Each structure stands twice: as C-alpha cells, then as structure tokens.
C-alpha cells in the first residue's frame, strides 16, 4: 500500500477516534441535550384525566403564608369527596406531612384521607454522595439515599404513598422520572405518580400498567412530556373551599394538589420548555399522562451510539477526502439531515438517540476536509502552474487549471490558428566543431530568445524539437489579431538574432541566424498522444505548411503564406516569390512571400 494511502487512512482514523472520544467524554452533552429536547419533546393530546388544583397566590392570600394548618387540606379532601357519585378516582397530595402536630387536626386529616381510600400522599428522600466501604474497597456512592421520610404513622396507615423526588440531568434540565428508590432498611418505594396511576387503574378496572424501561439504581425513565407549563392547572385550593369546583367535573378523574406559586420554590426547568419553569405538581401530571399513554422510550446505550458515530465518521471522511465541493456537500447534507430523520423515526418507535452527535461531528469533519481539500488544491494548482509555466505558455496552464481533469483528456477541436516555426541555420555544423557544453549554452540562449518573443506577443509555446521552436496563436484561448501577433513575434526573433549573434561571436567565435515560417488556417488543437503521455499541440495541413515554409527560409528570412499576407494587408511589407519555391506536399501554384517589414498599425 502506498505511503500516501496509509497516511490518508491514519488521518481518517484519528479524526473518527477524536470525535468519538469527545462525544464519549460528554463534550457535546449540553448542546446535544438541547437539540434532542427540541426535536423530541412536543405537546400532544392528554390521555389520563388529570387536573391540577394549585396552592397558588389566590389560596395563599386567603389562608395566609405557607405552611398552613393541616385542617385546610382535610377540608379540601372532604369537599372533593362530598358527592359520592362524582368523587375523584384519585386525590394526589404533593405535600409532605411528616411528624405529628395538633392531635385534633391530625385526626381530622387522617379521617378525611382514609374515608374513601383514594388519597395518595408524598414521601421524601434526601439523595447525595456518601463514603462507603464495601468488601474492603472504599468508594464514593454519588447516588446514595442519605435519609428517608414518611408521613406520620396514622396518615401512612390510611393512605397510599409515593416518593416525590426529582432528578435533574447534568445540564440542570429535568428529563427523567424516578420510578423507585431503595432506602436503607425500607422496602422499595415507588414514585408518587406511579402509585397514583395504579390506583386510578384499579378504580376504573383497567389492567395494571407495564413498567417503563429504566436505567440506573433509581429506576430513572425517560419522560416524554405531554404539555408545557400551565395546561393541567384548573382551579385554586381557594376555589375548592369556596364551592367553585363543580362536582360533576371531578368524577373518576385524577386530582393533583400541590404548590403552584414561585414563592413556594417547587419549580424546575424541563425538557419541553427551557425558558419557563414547570411546577413539580405539573411534572407529576406529565408523568401520569406518560404512564397512561404507555409509549415508553428506551435510551439506546451510549456504547452502541458511539460505535455508530465512529463508523459514520470514518465513512464520511472517506467520502469527503479529495472530493469536489458539490458531491461532498450533498454527502454532508444527506448524512446530517438523514440522521435527524432517523432520530425522529426511532423516537416515534420508542428509541431515544443522541440527536447532535452525528450531525455535529459530520459537519465539523466536513468543514475541516473542505478546508484541507481547498488548501491542497490551491497548493497543487500553484505547483502545477509554477512547474508547467517553465515548459508551456501560461495560457495553457490557466486553461488546464480552469477546466480541471476535463482539459487533460485526449481529444481536440478544429480551430483557426496561426503557426510559427523557427530554427537555427547551420546548427548541425556548429555542433560538430563545438564542445557539448558550448552547444548547450548556445542552444539555451537561442531558445530563451525565441521563447521570450513568443511570450511577449501572447503566443502559446507549443514545443521544442531540437533547435526548432513551434508556437501557435488563437489557442487554447481565442485571441484578437492573432495572425499579426505571430508575424510580429517572427520579426522580433529575426531582429533579436542580430544581438545574439554578436554576443555568441564574442563568446564562442560563432554566430547564429534564424529561418522562420508563418502560416494561418484551420487545425485540430488539443491533447494529442496516449493516456499515459500526451502533448497539447496542433496538427493538420496548416501546421505542416508552416513547417515547410520555415525549412525553406534562408538565414535571417521570414517566409509567410498568401493567407497571412492577405489577412495583414496594409500592415506588413512583403516580396512575393510566387511559386518559385516548391513546398513538399503542396501542389504547383502555392505562393510564398518574404516578410520585409511589420508596421505598428492597430487593426
């Protein structure tokens, strides 16, 4: 395997490992959770018959600051149950009544709560970190139940109870409900909402609900919210005692009573709305609705999702690498957008995926590879340009860079061009009497002169063949006045040869003179040769005729065709030689003209 391929694979592997590691370490946790909440959590129709009666500002104004005497809650329970034909299925009281108070008031509360067997009250645990030694190994348990509190004994005996503990995720947002806790020296304690919904099912003769899929020691389950804050709230506790709640509005329903005022400090940021906090009693209502719907969600293992991220990162990097912008962009959009669709589809089928991991990683990798591809392409173009400009005209390099690989394929097109051939007269004899280094030095100076004349007149230097130089005009790019430019280059060469001859006479005791031929007409211009070796050149009768004109031109002479002379009439001075010189491959009557002068007259 080539070293470049190995390097490419190593870079791709490192990129995939890097983003997989970052995701696994939780670097993307907060934005991922926010995007997941946006995609997953949405309001939907309520399934359970839940209503919230709030300990709100109105009730606090009527009954005074919290905490109230327990007799108020006793009266509320009695009022809600007073119409036996229309009493609630369940009354859930999200208030912790620990310890005993006034015996008369406590007895009243116990009697009211126990009369119909439809009251669920709250228990509470203190959760935190604890230093533990187990099997001789010390460690910190960050999910320890530090303490557990139950309602006072008499109330506990006549009611059902469930814990009201809430658990934030790492970013301070509530997305899970705790199905149960396991306090030391106690049996497993199920949640307030689970106990309420079970009692509701018993009241209506419904089958016992299935438990949601849980993870962790506390049985945390993903909570798909039904509503945003405010939807479940219907009445104030004050409305109940004022008789403002119709009894037929309560029949068979779940009535939740709990704090509903910011001053009571029982509100949380939830997944369905990060901007407005939700009261704890509304969270209980959402959990009951989720239990009633039975559409539980399972959070796919992070290990599996990291493996998916790793594989997709490798595949996408392989696709992005050295890919043109359009297919790379389409690939990025397909994977990133497709992953969002997969997440939504999976969620509707009960699977919770990390929404942002794949799109974020793929987007960053896409940007990096596009930048790398651009930098590499720029450097390669610069390298190609700097290299090939030493051999061919800048126009050819520009055309190749503009058209990319399409310009490098075999083929050509018919184009009207002007062609110039020039070579040294007597070069073979000179080579026999001079040393090779001297011959090379003379040849280099001659080729430098001819190249300079071609470039100065915006020609394309086609090739060097020994001491012969070939140049064309009007290809690969169209040019104005291209025939004049070719003739002007020829004149510059002849004039330049005089200074070069004097210099070479002084250095080597030898002089050089040129014979030049110029013709114009149609020719096939393009990449000629084989796939593994080709030349950008021109072929056809026009090229052959220019070569024949040059081979017959004496030293210091420029031969042109009638086609060139007619095209530049009034701008050049010529002497017609008629058909006195026979060109190989040409029929009798082909006119040759000797160029005498070129005038600087714009067309």
What structural category arises from helix and sheet content? Answer: alpha/beta
Regions with pLDDT < 50 over 5+ consecutive residues? 405-409
Terminal Cα separation, in Å? 60 Å
Q: Beta fraction of the residues?
A: 15-25%
For the secondary structure, the number of strands is 23
Domain count: the total is 3
Biggest β-sheet description: 8 strands, mixed
What is the arithmetic mean of pLDDT?
Answer: 87
The number of helical elements comes to 18
Relative helix content: 40-55%
- What form results from the Cα inertia axes? rod-shaped
| Radius of gyration based on Cα positions | 46 Å
Structure notes:
The structure is a single chain. The chain has 18 helices and 23 strands. The protein has 603 residues and is α/β, with parallel strands linked by helices. It has three domains: 110 residues, no CATH class; 250 residues, no CATH class; 204 residues, Alpha-Beta Plaits. Strands 16, 17, 18, 19, 20, 21, 22 and 23 form an eight-stranded mixed β-sheet that branches. Strands 1, 2, 3, 4, 5, 10 and 11 form a seven-stranded mixed β-sheet that branches. Strands 6-9 form a two-stranded antiparallel ribbon. A hairpin with a 2-residue loop joins strand 19 and strand 20. Helix 15 packs antiparallel against helix 16. The longest helix is centred in the middle third of the chain and has 32 residues. About 1% of the residues have low confidence.
């Amino acid at each position: 395997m080539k070293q470049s391929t190995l390097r490419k694979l190593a870079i791709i592997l490192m990129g995939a490992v890097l983003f997989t590691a970052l995701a696994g370490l939780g670097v993307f946790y907060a934005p991922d959770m926010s995007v997941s909440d946006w995609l997953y959590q949405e309001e939907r129709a309520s399934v359970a018959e839940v209503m919230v009666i709030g300990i709100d500002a109105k009730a606090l104004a009527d009954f005074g600051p919290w905490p109230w005497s327990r007799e108020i809650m006793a009266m509320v329970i009695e009022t809600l149950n007073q119409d036996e034909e229309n009493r609630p299925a369940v009354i859930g009281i999200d208030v912790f009544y620990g310890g005993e108070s006034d015996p008369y008031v406590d007895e009243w509360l116990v009697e009211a709560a126990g009369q119909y067997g439809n009251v669920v009250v709250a228990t509470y645990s203190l959760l935190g970190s604890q230093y533990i030694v187990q099997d001789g190994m010390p460690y910190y348990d960050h999910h320890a139940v530090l303490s557990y509190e139950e309602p006072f004994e008499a109330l506990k005996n006549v009611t059902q109870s469930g814990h009201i503990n809430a658990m934030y995720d790492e970013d301070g947002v509530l997305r899970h409900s705790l199905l149960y806790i396991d306090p030391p020296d106690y049996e497993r304690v199920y949640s307030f909402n689970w106990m309420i919904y079970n009692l509701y099912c018993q009241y209506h003769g419904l089958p016992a609900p299935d438990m949601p899929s849980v993870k962790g020691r506390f049985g945390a389950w993903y909570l798909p919210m039904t509503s945003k804050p405010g939807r479940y709230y219907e009445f104030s506790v004050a409305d109940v005692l004022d008789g403002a709640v119709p009894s037929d509005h309560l029949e068979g329903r779940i009535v939740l009573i709990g704090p509903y005022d910011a001053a009571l400090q029982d509100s949380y940021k939830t997944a369905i709305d990060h901007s407005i906090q939700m009261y704890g009693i509304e969270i209980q209502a959402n959990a009951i609705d989720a239990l009633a719907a039975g559409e539980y969600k399972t959070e796919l293992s992070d290990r599996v999702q990291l493996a998916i991220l790793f594989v997709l990162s490798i595949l996408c990097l392989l696709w992005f690498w050295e890919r043109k912008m359009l297919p790379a962009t389409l690939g990025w959009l397909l994977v990133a957008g497709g992953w969002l669709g997969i997440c939504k589809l999976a969620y509707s089928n009960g699977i919770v995926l990390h929404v942002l991991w794949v799109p974020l990683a793929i987007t960053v990798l896409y940007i990096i590879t596009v930048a790398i591809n651009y930098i590499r392409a720029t450097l390669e173009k610069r390298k190609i340009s700097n290299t090939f400009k030493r051999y061919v005209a800048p126009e050819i390099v520009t055309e190749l860079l503009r058209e990319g690989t399409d310009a490098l394929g075999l083929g050509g097109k018919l184009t009207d061009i002007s062609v110039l051939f020039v070579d040294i007269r007597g070069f073979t004899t000179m080579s026999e009497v001079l040393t090779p280094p001297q011959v090379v030095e003379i040849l280099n100076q001659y080729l430098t002169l001819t190249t300079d004349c071609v470039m100065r007149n915006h020609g394309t230097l086609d090739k060097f063949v020994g001491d012969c130089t070939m140049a064309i005009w009007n290809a690969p790019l169209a040019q104005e006045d291209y025939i004049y430019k070719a003739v002007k280059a020829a004149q510059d060469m002849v004039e330049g040869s005089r200074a070069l001859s004097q210099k070479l006479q002084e250095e080597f005791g030898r002089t050089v003179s040129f014979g030049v031929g110029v013709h114009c007409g149609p020719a096939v211009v393009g990449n000629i040769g084989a796939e593994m070796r080709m030349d950008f050149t021109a072929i056809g009768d026009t090229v052959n005729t220019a070569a024949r004109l040059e081979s017959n031109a004496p030293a210091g002479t420029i031969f042109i065709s009638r086609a060139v002379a007619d095209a530049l009439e009034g701008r050049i001075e010529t002497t017609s030689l008629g058909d006195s010189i026979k060109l190989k491959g040409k029929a009798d009557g082909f006119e040759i003209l000797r160029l005498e002068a070129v005038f600087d007259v714009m067309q």
